Amino acid sequence: MSDVRPPSVTTWFKENQTLMIFLIAQALAIATAGAGIIAYYVRMETRVSTMETRGAAYTVARMDDMRQRISILEEQVSKNEESIKRVVDVMTRELGKR
Fold it and tell me: What is the C-alpha to C-alpha distance for residues 22 and 11, in angstroms, rounded to an integer?
């Protein structure tokens, strides 16, 4: 009968050292990628939060500016309409005289 002993754990690690190094390196790479993704999402959430906080006041101010511009344009349109009506009245009077 031969002496068959189960291989010890240290012997198995020595025989499969390359495999273990590869698996450890792969686990480190996956962990690093996961940490990078988490950091990216944290930065994005911070940017969104900042934009929501600062952007609200900016948007309100911008809308007020647009309202002012629109009211100025409406006044100019009204003046132009009056001028056009006067020109049309003068031209129709001139046509009636001929």
Answer: 18
pLDDT in tens, 43-92: 999 988 888 887 777 788 888 999 999 999 999 999 999 999 999 988 88
Residue 40 and residue 35: Cα distance in Å, rounded? 9
CA gap 30, 25 in Å, rounded: 9
Could you tell me if residue 26 is inside a domain? yes
Work out how many domains the chain is built from and give that number: 1
Residues 77/78/83/89 CA torsion (nearest 10 deg) = 120
